[in-house]
Structures are given as C-alpha cells and as structure tokens.
Amino acid sequence: MRYLIVLLVLLVTLPAQAVSLRDTRLEETLRNVAAQSSKDTPRKLNEFIVDEGFSAEGKELINHLSVDGQYAVRMQSDPLVVRSQLQSSVCADQRFRRLLDMGATLTYHFVLTDTHQPILTQSFVADHCLSM
Questions:
Q1: Does residue 23 carry a pLDDT above 70?
Q2: Is the peptide bond prior to 15 cis by the omega test (within 30 degrees of 0)?
C-alpha cells in the first residue's frame, strides 16, 4: 500500500516539475535573447523608429521602441494596421516562432522619443500565428 501512495505522489509531482523546468529554461532563453538582441542599442530601424533594446520578464520578451511624434499619431490612428504588420513580421521570423512555440509572449512596446510616454503596446503568442 505504501508503494502505491509513493507512486501516486510521484505521478502527480513529476509533471509539475517538468513544467517548471520547461518554464525555467524558457525564461533563461528569453533573458539570453534579450541580452543578445540589445547589443548595439539604441539603433535606428528607419527614419521614424529607434530600437531601444529588449528585456525579458518571466515568459515575455519585450522589444522597447521609440517613435517620433508624427509617426506616433499615425500608429495611434490605425492600431489594427500596426498590429497586422507586426503580426506578419513576428510570424514570418522563425526565431520568434520557435520562442512562441515554447510558450513565450512577444511584446512590442512603443513610446514617444525622449519622453517615454506610451504610444502603443502589442503582444503575440503562438496562437496568433496559426491563422497565417
């Protein structure tokens, strides 16, 4: 009878430990990706957007971007177009797809240049790429 109890306890705790280990590995991977992707930042992506670098918070990888005032107005006037463009970019990038498939969330956080005033934040998970 004792062996049955021990076996039941093991069957219940092992999956929980596996999930915890997977989450820990994902978080470590995201911290490494954030550190690597943040090298040489800030860097200008185009005339409107500056990549300020990445950070990792738990299972979320956050790309911090700053935009000038005119572009911020354009982004806020049509956030669905911005989301669609970002989603296409994320889902087409195999590196991002692998992270999403591992359970990560990829977030783009846009702020107004020199003020850090939030403009727009968009987050993506693996399910957002299923329809593409």
A1: yes
A2: no
